[in-house]
Amino acid sequence: MLAAYVEQFNPDNPIAALQLGERPDPVIDSDDWTVIEVRATSINHHDVFTARGGVIPEESLPRILGMDAAGVDTDGREVLVHNLVNSTGWVGPPLLDPGLTGLSEGYDGTFAEQVLVPRANLVLKPSSLTFEEAACLPTAWLTAYRMLFVSADLRPGDRVLVQGAAGGVTTALTSLGSAAGFRMWVTGRDEAKRAHAKVHGAEATFESGARLPERVDAVMETVGAPTWQHSLKSLRKGGTLVVAGGTGGYRAETDLSRVFVNNLRIIGSTMGTREDLDRLVHFITASGIRPTIQEVLPLAAAKEAMTLMNQGGLRGKVVLKP
After folding, report:
1. Are residues 125 and 144 in the same domain?
2. Quick one: what percent of the chain has pLDDT higher than 90?
3. Does residue 129 sit in the same domain as residue 213?
4. Geometric angle at alpha carbon 232, from 209 and 252, rounded to 5°
5. Residues 224 and 119 in one domain
6. C-alpha–C-alpha distance, residues 162 and 234, integer Å
7. Least buried of 24, 134, 262, 318, by fewest C-beta within 10 Å?
8. Residue 227 lies in a domain
9. Any idea what the CATH number is for the domain that residue 53 is in?
10. Within this chain, do residues 145 and 121 fall inside the same structural domain, yes or no?
11. 192: number of Cβ within 10 Å
């Protein structure tokens, strides 16, 4: 089958690390697993980091990249794939499993014509969603859903600051939060990105690092070091800072006195559960919101998709179609 994969990491040029060619078809060796015919898959920063060598060990190579997929299972059902895989026998909270891994990490990913997945990871795709839209949900939109509705514990009417205006997760945060009745404030480095956030439901937008007219109930942080201080200073007393990434860098100084004097909560939030994904699908179906897709490309153009992600400046998701 045709697939986009990595045989050797390239820290300086992740696009050069990506190979396109034939890989063995997946083989079902357990009743608990099945093969999905991939109709659409979307690219994430995780794929770039993996190609650089920052996610999996070298002994895992070669590895097919890709975390998101929508397609058709062996029973002919249209499905989304939840990409996190628990270790055998784990019975605790899914995201706390020490052996938790995922597609493109412990197993081959979704940048292929077929992908092998646990049956328990499937979520039915509603007919109102296209395969392209559905393929945007399992990573970026699921991450945003859990940040807002599980990790932050927000209520309609709360003020929420999103750091960054136009990426996959930040667009999802703005769209989902607005649909849920939150007052979404968004920062962006340029006017075009701030305008993008307005279109997707932002109540107000600000330049990166700008002083806000009021402090907020929660901050959604995926940028990391460049915005960390601003995030802490923007919170009201008792506010919550939810961290789900660090695309701009992972190391930032923290004024601990600000944290304990103001009773701030800093919460890490990674992806979401299969049940979160199912709820997300129901929410966007009921609300009518949809993922923003900037480009739809054939799988054969995986290097072009990786280049778009690596360059930044996206206004939504990039989708690949095998």
Report:
1. no
2. 89
3. no
4. 85
5. no
6. 11
7. 24
8. yes
9. 3.90.180.10
10. no
11. 12
Which CATH number goes with the domain that contains 144?
A: 3.40.50.720
Please give the single-letter amino acid code of residue 178: S
Whether residue 71 is predicted with pLDDT greater than 90 in this model: the reply is: yes
Query: Which residues have a Cβ under 8 Å from the Cβ of 62 and sit 6 or more positions away?
Result: 5, 6, 7, 19, 23
- Average the pLDDT over 72-89 and give the result: 96
In a domain, 279, yes or no: no
Straight-line distance from the first to the last Cα atom of the chain, in angstroms, rounded to the nearest whole number: 10
pLDDT digits (tens, 9 = 90+) for 124-171: 999 999 999 999 999 999 999 999 999 998 999 999 999 988 888 999
Query: Are residues 9 and 90 located together in one domain of the fold?
Result: yes
Overall domain count for the chain: 2
- Summarize the confidence of residues 21-48 as an average pLDDT: 95
Residue 164 lies in a domain: yes
| Residue 217 and residue 105 in one domain | no
Please tell me the distance from the alpha carbon of residue 207 to that of residue 284, in angstroms, as a whole number: 29
Please, are residues 262 and 238 in contact by the beta-carbon 8 Å criterion?
Answer: yes
Tell me the Cα Rg of the chain.
19
Host domain of residue 189: 140-268
Whether 178 and 64 map to the same domain: the answer is: no
Query: By CB neighbour count within 10 A (0-12 exposed, 13-18 middle, 19+ buried), where does 321 fall?
Result: middle
Q: How far apart are CA 23 and CA 265, in angstroms?
A: 46
My answer on whether 13 and 129 are in the same domain is yes
Domain presence at residue 275 = no
How large is the greatest C-alpha to C-alpha distance in the chain, in angstroms? 58
- Which pTM was predicted? 0.94
How long is the chain? 322
List helix spans (H) across the chain. Answer: 14-17, 45-52, 131-134, 142-146, 168-179, 191-199, 228-233, 256-261, 274-287, 302-311
CB atoms within 10 A of CB 106: 15
